[in-house]
Every structure is written in structure tokens, then in C-alpha cells.
């Protein structure tokens, strides 16, 4: 087990280097000059611009800039934004909001997704199963922005159950509606994956053995059937946790949640290279960590992998 | 060891000698499929007494496994459906019991051993857990106690280093060891009756004999009834007391094991016996019964075996033969022997 973790950690290094390099150079390929843009519509003053360039090290060769940046990353320095604020500050400010939002969405999709999937799989071909299939298909086919605005209109404006947009991003109760929107697509996938897996495994020989042992139905399903059926679902959930953390840009935009997605979107608009790279580098770490956790969980759930 | 296999059956009272533990009476099972109704079991009768071994012999599709699954109550319903008959356990019809009553018989009174232990054991739970589960669920013992009992059981079925291996998973054992674990699981609560569905089919020939011997030994020790379902005549000869041969959902012949081998009273049994390879036939072509087992959706009229039978007459093609009592040449009835063949006399004596 220790060797497995060590190997996985080593594998992360090239992935981390590759992704950060890609994003660093891609930001520099974006058209437009972020410093010149500070003058707005006016023509920038060449002397001041040159001074700013020097201050931001933009006058150095790109490779040098990259090496400096990576050197900073490994000492925990994510660089500074154009306004002089450390990027790490921005991350630590936005992160708690996004983590709350992502975990809410994650919990929502796990509880409902696995619940719906389990009952649909056990009652394959019955009314509940068919309704679940239609319901999840609907969720999959509605784009997130549409669902977001729809929920905003229904629950925020018409029914007035919640405020249409988030006023205070640190208040978790205000994040419930955005979290439902954020988790809905994954919920559909989780439900379908669970359903298929349950319906397939319920015919397995070991389930028949469990029945033949005279175990109560609850135990046959909970201990024997569900545990085997959740293996593929866990894989999906792990990668999805990473996606929820970074992929909330649209949802955060609709509901005005001041999280990572929101900050990243603004930074891209302003062509703030250091901020974009910093956030993305951070998200890459989150993704890799989520991937590692999935693999470990996978090994816990399936001993055939643990000892392979 | 006696603590593990505490005799639970004594509480329910000993049966008188010869009284059947389990009696299957006129059982009919159908499968409703898209293509029609498949009659998998058509009026099967058999019984097993304590300490007795009944071998049920037949090709795939003969209904031998379906009958066993119906007894266990693990038949998938739907598509399966019991349309007629009784399954009496100690005189009580299990088909009339509630689900909860039946569940309490499963594993505790009647246990089952499956063919392929690798797929029949749960891949993600340790064998110790799966064995201990029997005690935890049925007797409510603690986790630690269940584990200790699991180790005792593994010792009992002669798994080497049981203590070290109790936390291992099924895929870490060899095929023979896995089947021993299945046997241990079936034995755990010392049931009255064990149904073994092709218990050695998935094993190497050398291991087959060991597993079969172990099963027979434990059966004798605990005086259990055993229903041994198999298509392998070789497995049956050493351990069975009596044999029921099944074909297309019916029993076509029953007999004490040695009499059946020496002198079959049904052409199908005769064909099966002839198709066993023998050393003294080296160089000769191996005999095989011509044709294939019937499609259960359209079983031939009359005797289901008639299209494959060498001696079939017009009568065989129109009338389903009853399971006749069989007599010797002097007309004296042979006990325990029956044949569902119009021509049993010619087959037996001719």
C-alpha cells in the first residue's frame, strides 16, 4: 500500500509540471497586453509602460519568467497579481466559498444519486425505474446555465424561497440553491451509473449465495450488493469532486458566488497571467489529490486491486 | 469443534429412521419468456432422508438445478413460476411459508453449495467475514467470536494455516480451497440437508476427489441429508445412495446407485453409462447419445427422449410414459427402482 501511494505521488510530478507549463505559456499566448490595458482607451505612456514591464519582469525572456515562476511555486510563492496582491491571498479568500459550494453539491449528488440509482436498479423496468431514467435524461440534456436561470426564476423570484443571487458568499445557507444546480448534472450520472451497476450485480452469483445463506434482504443489499456496485460510482465521484471545485465558473457567475470560478473568470478577462496560472496550478493539485483519493478508496473497496 | 457445529437440529426433534427430511411432490416449474413458456420442471418427485445421499443426474436443461433452486427458494421469480406441487421439509410445505419463515430455513436448516466458488463468494469481503456472517446473522454472536468460529470451520475443512488466512479474500485461494470454504459455509450452522449443485465441476480432477471425499465424510459425521446435483456419473458412484436421472424436466429413472450402474432400466441412462470413456475401449470410437437435449419451449410429444432413442416405437412418440415400478425377471418388484420408459422391460432384461 505504501509503495502504491509513493508511486502515485511520483507520477504526479510530471503531470503537475506539464499542466502548469501548458497554462503558463497559454496565458502568454492570449491576445492583448494586460499592462497596456491599464490605460484603458488612452494610449499608454511608453516610459511608464516600460517601467511597469520591468517591475513585472515582462521584459525578460519567457523561459526565464517561467523558471522564476516555477521556482516561486515550489517555495509556496504563487506570485503577485498586477495590483500587487499576492495570488495566494486571492486563492485563500475564494477557496473556502468554493469548497463549501462543491461539498454541498457533492453531498447532494451522492445522497440523491445513489439513492435513486439503488431503488431504480432494484426495481428495474418498473415505474420508478422508468421515471428515474426520464428524470436523469432531462437533467443531462438541460445545459447548466438554463437550469441555473430556471431555478433562479422559480425559487428566487416567483416563490421567493431564497434570494435570487448570493449576497454573502460565506453564508452556507445561501449556497444551497447554487449547489443543487451545480450538482444536478453529476447527480444524473451518479444515478444512472448506480442503477446499471445494481441491476447487473443483482444477478451475480455471490448475491444468490447471500440469499441462500438466509441473510435478511437488507443485509443482502447493503453489505453484498451495494458495496460491489459502488466501485464504478466511486471512480466517477472522485474525478467529479475535482471538476466541481474548478468547474463552477458558470454556476458561480449566475448566482454571484465569490469563489474560485468567479476569481478565475475575472483574471482571464483581465489577462492576469500570474493569477490565472496560480489558480490553475492550485486546481491541478486538487485534481491530482482527488485522483489519488479515488485510487486509494478503490483499493479499499476492491481487494483484488489492493493485492494485484 | 463441537461448539461450532452445535447441534441445532436436535431442538426440532429427531426424525424417525427412514422418514424423509425433504420430500418434493409433483413439482412443476415454468419460465415465462418472450418466446413462450418453458416447462423446466414437469412433475418431479423425490425425497431425501437424514444421512442419505441422493444424486440427481442430468444434462444441462434437464431441470435438476431449477428443482434445487426452488427448494432453496432462490429461483428468480419472475421469470420462474411454481405452478404445482409441494416441497415438504419435515412434513411442512415450504411453498406455503412466508418469506421470513423460509429465510430462517435457508442456511440454517437447508444449505447450498454452488458450482463455481469464485463467483459464488463475494469478491470484496474476506472469507472470514463471509463465514462469520452466518453466526452473526443467525446466532447473533460478536464479531470476534464469529471470526474464531470461522477459523474453526476453516480448520474443519482442512484449509492449511486457517488462522493466517482468515482475512484473505476469495481470489487469493486456489479453486479447491475456495470450494472447501463454500462447504464450510454450508456446514457452519450444521443444517439437516445440504444441496450441492455441481460442487466439483469447476475443479481439477485430482482436487475433485478430495473435495467429494471431504463432503461425504462431513455428511456422515453430522448425519445430514445430501442432494448431489451433477452431470458427472463418475462423481456419483462413490458417494450416492440412490440416483434420480432427469431428462427434460422429468425424472426418467430412479434406482439405488449400484443397481443403476449394473443394470439401467431406461435407454437414456443406458446411453449415459455407455458414453463414459473406459480404458479397455482404447482405440475405439467414444459413444455419444445422438442429437441434443430438447428445447424446453417445444418438448417432443410423447416421451421427450424419443427423437434420440434407438428403440423408440410409435407409442413412445405419442404417449408420455409414467414412472413405472420395475420388476425383476420373475416379476418381483425391485425396491426403489422406477423407470419412465414404455420399454423398460426390454431395456432392463433384454
Automatic annotation (TrEMBL), chain A:
<protein>
    <submittedName>
        <fullName>ABC transporter permease</fullName>
    </submittedName>
</protein>
<keyword id="KW-1003">Cell membrane</keyword>
<dbReference type="Pfam" id="PF00528">
    <property type="entry name" value="BPD_transp_1"/>
</dbReference>
<comment type="similarity">
    <text>Belongs to the binding-protein-dependent transport system permease family.</text>
</comment>
<feature type="transmembrane region" description="Helical">
    <location>
        <begin position="132"/>
        <end position="155"/>
    </location>
</feature>
<keyword id="KW-0812">Transmembrane</keyword>
<feature type="transmembrane region" description="Helical">
    <location>
        <begin position="97"/>
        <end position="120"/>
    </location>
</feature>
<feature type="transmembrane region" description="Helical">
    <location>
        <begin position="175"/>
        <end position="193"/>
    </location>
</feature>
<dbReference type="Pfam" id="PF19300">
    <property type="entry name" value="BPD_transp_1_N"/>
</dbReference>
<keyword id="KW-1133">Transmembrane helix</keyword>
<dbReference type="InterPro" id="IPR035906">
    <property type="entry name" value="MetI-like_sf"/>
</dbReference>
<keyword id="KW-0472">Membrane</keyword>
<feature type="transmembrane region" description="Helical">
    <location>
        <begin position="279"/>
        <end position="301"/>
    </location>
</feature>
<feature type="domain" description="ABC transmembrane type-1">
    <location>
        <begin position="95"/>
        <end position="298"/>
    </location>
</feature>
<dbReference type="GO" id="GO:0005886">
    <property type="term" value="C:plasma membrane"/>
</dbReference>
<feature type="transmembrane region" description="Helical">
    <location>
        <begin position="225"/>
        <end position="250"/>
    </location>
</feature>
<dbReference type="InterPro" id="IPR000515">
    <property type="entry name" value="MetI-like"/>
</dbReference>
<dbReference type="InterPro" id="IPR045621">
    <property type="entry name" value="BPD_transp_1_N"/>
</dbReference>
<keyword id="KW-0813">Transport</keyword>
<feature type="transmembrane region" description="Helical">
    <location>
        <begin position="12"/>
        <end position="30"/>
    </location>
</feature>
<dbReference type="GO" id="GO:0055085">
    <property type="term" value="P:transmembrane transport"/>
</dbReference>
TrEMBL record, chain B:
<keyword id="KW-0067">ATP-binding</keyword>
<keyword id="KW-0997">Cell inner membrane</keyword>
<dbReference type="InterPro" id="IPR013563">
    <property type="entry name" value="Oligopep_ABC_C"/>
</dbReference>
<comment type="similarity">
    <text>Belongs to the ABC transporter superfamily.</text>
</comment>
<feature type="domain" description="ABC transporter">
    <location>
        <begin position="22"/>
        <end position="273"/>
    </location>
</feature>
<dbReference type="InterPro" id="IPR017871">
    <property type="entry name" value="ABC_transporter-like_CS"/>
</dbReference>
<dbReference type="InterPro" id="IPR027417">
    <property type="entry name" value="P-loop_NTPase"/>
</dbReference>
<keyword id="KW-1003">Cell membrane</keyword>
<protein>
    <submittedName>
        <fullName>ABC transporter ATP-binding protein</fullName>
    </submittedName>
</protein>
<dbReference type="InterPro" id="IPR003593">
    <property type="entry name" value="AAA+_ATPase"/>
</dbReference>
<dbReference type="Pfam" id="PF08352">
    <property type="entry name" value="oligo_HPY"/>
</dbReference>
<keyword id="KW-0547">Nucleotide-binding</keyword>
<keyword id="KW-1278">Translocase</keyword>
<dbReference type="Pfam" id="PF00005">
    <property type="entry name" value="ABC_tran"/>
</dbReference>
<dbReference type="GO" id="GO:0015833">
    <property type="term" value="P:peptide transport"/>
</dbReference>
<dbReference type="GO" id="GO:0016887">
    <property type="term" value="F:ATP hydrolysis activity"/>
</dbReference>
<dbReference type="GO" id="GO:0005886">
    <property type="term" value="C:plasma membrane"/>
</dbReference>
<dbReference type="InterPro" id="IPR003439">
    <property type="entry name" value="ABC_transporter-like_ATP-bd"/>
</dbReference>
<keyword id="KW-0472">Membrane</keyword>
<keyword id="KW-0813">Transport</keyword>
<dbReference type="GO" id="GO:0005524">
    <property type="term" value="F:ATP binding"/>
</dbReference>
<dbReference type="InterPro" id="IPR050388">
    <property type="entry name" value="ABC_Ni/Peptide_Import"/>
</dbReference>
